[in-house]
Amino acid sequence: MDRRTRDGGPVVIGSSSVKQAEEATDTTTDRSVSPQLRRCLGQADLRAVPEARRALREMLVHWGRPGRSETAELLTSELVTNAIIHTDRDAVLTATVSPGRLRVEVRDFVGRRPRPRRPDDGDGTHGRGLILVQSLSDAWGVRAHGVGKAVWFELDGEAS
């Protein structure tokens, strides 16, 4: 059975490179489809963080102003880390790039909503992820799903 998304494209399941995702979604000759990265993140698999950064870096090699892709990598690693550490389930990373905008979202299957919080001095490295996302992204938010949520951010490719 051929599974399709709401917009009619095929569902991409499992780890995939940008090229594989593009091939899987390019069933017609329409090249207006934005490149997309989709990764399944295994429960408590911390290797997913550097792998997600590397895959995003490859996808964004010619995107945006200098420094924007580095910001995207940092924010993506924060969302991926949060999903891996603060949930007890798998998650899905999706990044979609267009000439002027990047949207990254990490969907998990836990309904508890994340909250930005001020880290305490004794908190070490915990508590800073969503503050970074809030501070460095052009837009961000949390969208509820039937099961779980998606935490997302957007970056404008032309912003400095």
TrEMBL record:
<protein>
    <submittedName>
        <fullName>ATP-binding protein</fullName>
    </submittedName>
</protein>
<feature type="domain" description="Histidine kinase/HSP90-like ATPase">
    <location>
        <begin position="43"/>
        <end position="153"/>
    </location>
</feature>
<feature type="region of interest" description="Disordered">
    <location>
        <begin position="1"/>
        <end position="34"/>
    </location>
</feature>
<keyword id="KW-0723">Serine/threonine-protein kinase</keyword>
<dbReference type="InterPro" id="IPR050267">
    <property type="entry name" value="Anti-sigma-factor_SerPK"/>
</dbReference>
<keyword id="KW-0808">Transferase</keyword>
<dbReference type="InterPro" id="IPR036890">
    <property type="entry name" value="HATPase_C_sf"/>
</dbReference>
<keyword id="KW-0418">Kinase</keyword>
<dbReference type="GO" id="GO:0005524">
    <property type="term" value="F:ATP binding"/>
</dbReference>
<keyword id="KW-0067">ATP-binding</keyword>
<dbReference type="InterPro" id="IPR003594">
    <property type="entry name" value="HATPase_dom"/>
</dbReference>
<dbReference type="Pfam" id="PF13581">
    <property type="entry name" value="HATPase_c_2"/>
</dbReference>
<keyword id="KW-0547">Nucleotide-binding</keyword>
